[in-house]
Design goal:
about 60 residues, flat, single chain, mainly alpha
Length: about 60
């Protein structure tokens, strides 16, 4: 999985400007632009909620 957004923010001294620009584009062109889920989606690109899944026991036969 590529974290190009995260890498761009780390490589740049203008992190806040990059995120503001992404939010402006998101608010202008997407139907759910000002929805909280939309802000979470933009933040996810920069690794805010990125984590590994939990390990779960498997019951039964997996096909």
């Amino acid at each position: 999985m590529s974290n190009s957004g995260l890498q761009a923010a780390k490589d740049s001294f203008l992190e806040e400007l990059i995120i503001r620009r992404e939010l402006a584009i998101n608010n202008k062109y997407f139907l759910d632009g000002r929805d909280p889920n939309s802000y979470t989606g933009v933040a996810w690109v920069y690794g805010v909620h990125d984590r590994a899944g939990f390990e779960r026991p498997i019951l039964g036969k997996v096909r």
